[in-house]
C-alpha cells in the first residue's frame, strides 16, 4: 500500500535539520519501497505491506536512533490523502473572503493526527478565541481557515496547547502530494 509520512517540526527555522536523502535512506533501511520526499518539511511517500498502525512506532524509533532527536510522525494512506483534500469543510464563499483579505498567503491548513481529535478538548482550548479564523474537525483532521497568515493566527497558536500537538500542512502542499501518489 502507498502511504505518506508527515514529520512534525523538522527543518523549521534552522532547527532539527534533516537532509531529505538521509530521510529517504531511513525508509529504505526499514525495508519500505519507492521512498520519495516532497519539500524539506518532512513528507515521505513510500510503499509498505505493513498495516498503518504498525508504521508509526517503527519509523519514530528509527528516526530517533538515526537523527538523535524526536519528531512525531503521522501516517496517511494514499486513499486517505484523496479523501482529506476532497473533504474541505468550508464554503467557497468563506474561502474567497479569506483570500480577499490577504491574497499573498496560504489560507487553508490541515492538521493531521494519528488519533481522532478530542472535540471537547479542542473546544475548551479554543473557547477564548473570538476572531474570524475557523476550524472544523473531521475525525483525525482539523481543518483551519485563516483570514491572515497562519503565523498571525491566534486560533492556530492555540493548537500548540493540545496535549499531542498535531502536524500541519497547507492545502496546496497536500494537493501536490495527492498528485504525486496517484
What does this structure look like?
With 182 residues, the protein is of the alpha+beta class. The protein folds into two domains: 2-82, Alpha-Beta Plaits, CATH 3.30.70.1280; 85-181, bacterial protein sp0830 like (Alpha-Beta Plaits, 2-Layer Sandwich), CATH 3.30.70.1260. Helix content is 38%, strand content 23%. The protein has seven helices and eight strands; from the N terminus they run βαββαβααβαββαβα. It has helices at residues 20-29, 52-67, 78-86, 92-101, 119-126, 154-158, 171-181, and strands at residues 2-7, 33-38, 43-47, 73-77, 108-112, 134-138, 141-145, 167-170. A hairpin with a 4-residue loop joins strand 2 (33-38) and strand 3. Helix 3 packs across helix 7. The protein is globular.
By DSSP (H or I, 4+ residues per run), the number of helices equals: 7
Strand content: 15-25%
User: What's the architecture of the largest domain, going by CATH?
Assistant: 2-Layer Sandwich
Any idea of the CATH topology of the largest domain? Answer: Alpha-Beta Plaits
Per CATH, the superfamily of the largest domain is bacterial protein sp0830 like
Q: Between the first and last Cα atoms, what is the distance in angstroms? A: 12 Å
Q: Structural class, from secondary structure content?
A: alpha+beta
Task: Quickly count the domains.
Answer: 2
Question: Percentage of helical residues?
Answer: 25-40%
Taken in chain order, the helices and strands follow as EHEEHEHHEHEEHEH
Any low-confidence stretches, pLDDT <50, length ≥5? none
Radius of gyration: 17 Å
Indicate the mean pLDDT: 94
Which class of the largest domain in CATH terms? Alpha Beta
- Give the strand order, joined by hyphens, for the main sheet: 2-3-1-4
Number of strands: 8
For the sheet with most strands, the description reads:
4 strands, antiparallel
Shape: globular
Amino acid at each position: 500500500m502507498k502511504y505518506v509520512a508527515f514529520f512534525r517540526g523538522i527543518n523549521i527555522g534552522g532547527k532539527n535539520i534533516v537532509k531529505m536523502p538521509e530521510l529517504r535512506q531511513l525508509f529504505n533501511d526499514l525495508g519500505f519501497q519507492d521512498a520519495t520526499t516532497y519539500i524539506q518539511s518532512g513528507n515521505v511517500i513510500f510503499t509498505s505491506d505493513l498495516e498503518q498502525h504498525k508504521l508509526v512506532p517503527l519509523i519514530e524509533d528509527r528516526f530517533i536512533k538515526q537523527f538523535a532527536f524526536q519528531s512525531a510522525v503521522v501516517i496517511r494512506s494514499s486513499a486517505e490523502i484523496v479523501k482529506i483534500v476532497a473533504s474541505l469543510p468550508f464554503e467557497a464563499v468563506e474561502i474567497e473572503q479569506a483570500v480577499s483579505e490577504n491574497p499573498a498567503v496560504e489560507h487553508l491548513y490541515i492538521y493531521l493526527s494519528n488519533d481522532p481529535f478530542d472535540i471537547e478538548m479542542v473546544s475548551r482550548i479554543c473557547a477564548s478565541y473570538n476572531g474570524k479564523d475557523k476550524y472544523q474537525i473531521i475525525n483525525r483532521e482539523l481543518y483551519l481557515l485563516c483570514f491572515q497568515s497562519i503565523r498571525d493566527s491566534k486560533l492556530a497558536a492555540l493548537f500548540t496547547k493540545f496535549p499531542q500537538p498535531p502536524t500541519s500542512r497547507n492545502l496546496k502542499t497536500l494537493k501536490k502530494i495527492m498528485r504525486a501518489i496517484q
